[in-house]
Amino acid sequence: MRQEDTNMSKRFGFTLQKKDSVGYHSDQNLILSESCFREQEINFYREVGTYEELLEEERQARKTLEEQMAVKLTTHVRKGFSSGLQVWKPGVLLGLRSFRVEELQVWSSGVSSRLRSCRWKSDSVVRLPPGPYSLPIIGNIFELGEKPHISLASLSKTYGGLMTLKLGSVITIVVSSPEFAKEILLKHDLSFSSRSVLDTGRTVNHHLFSMIWLPVGDQWRRLRRISKEHLFSVQQLDAGQPLRREKIQKLLDYVHECFTSRKPINIGRAAFTTSLNVLSNFIFSTDIARYDSHESQEFKDAVSALADVIGKPNLADFFPLLKPFDPQGLLREANVYVEKLMAILDRMIDQRVQASAKSSAAGANSSTNDVLDLLLDLSRKNESGFSRNNILHLLFDLFTAATDTTTSTLEWAMAELVHNPEKMLKARSELEEITGKDAVIIEESDICSLIRKFDWELEGETRPEDMDMSERFGITLHKNVPLVAIPIKI
């Protein structure tokens, strides 16, 4: 091994291998490996440029790297790599916002490969994972198509579980294999936990208060701790069990009414109302909506539309210089839905604050000991700067995330069962084996209750095999055509 090789391996923790093991490529590209994770040595090889380029860069960066390597490595990982983390089904998109990074740590296969002095210059280009050819300026934007999750799945079959896309001016690493995703999201979740904020995520400055968009830091940890202790603790979840069963029973009562009148049910809307009322009772101790009510439909439409808007590929995200112009009008559209939802939640908080003020003036205690009361108490104590504005944005995250995902999941599950009658019969048979055919215990699962007590018939003369099972892309995947069916009591 030459002296330059020895110096470089000592400085960067790499082991240079010879031709007979893995060695150099015919174009003299350098392949590096590193030992890590205590007693286990894992070799990871990545092409990072020609041998001569690495030596030249090593000489130039020798002094500064000795002083700053340890500190800057972690800092620049978060700023340069993990700030671009986005999740698009079926892959994880890691947006490399900038190549002007002194050190960039790329986690892959359980090994950190330190890529040094990564500058976007013609004489020193980082060799990224393979990917499709990118067009000038626009890159691979057209490769995404109308359904990016399907396009990415197709591309991964050609280029592998780790591939590169250039989306406008943003270089993106797409991770679509379970192994790579596990390394990033489980073993190194802290390094990649911060997301780059989508342009539509900046509505009403939500990104400054939201646990979804905040970078890992004191404010994010405070919100996480409050959520863990006051919202999702074991005591809170156990205390909410009777409430969840009560709401499932109301759903079954509504379905029975529709069976009696032979009225078709919009499954997604009914599931949304149930989820919305479970959450609103948990937080506000009251129902926000009723089945077939205008309020329920208005709230659902706003949440679904917002998810669709945020999920649309946005030119302002691909070309940051366009953000002030909002070329597709997505930010303006998102503002409409966010302000509508915020107004509903703000009104609920106002009503509680006014009721508490009146009770205090009368010397009475009006506390309901629900989640809102707990959060308002924290706000009054000014615990670490937790204000009413923080409460509003936290509730916004809870309602938009919990209701939309639950609704979409249940609607797709019911659609698949109705579309495949033999699967419906098998699922019902398995439930009867567990609960008994005449069981009257109401469990906390919407889907189990709906298939155990009712069969389902499509409107008109539509056959199950002719159902429209197409999807609409967004933050969550919604059915393109809502599932509407008539319940038949078993």
UniProtKB/TrEMBL annotation:
What protein name does the entry list?
Answer: Uncharacterized protein
What organism is the protein native to? Arctium lappa (Greater burdock)
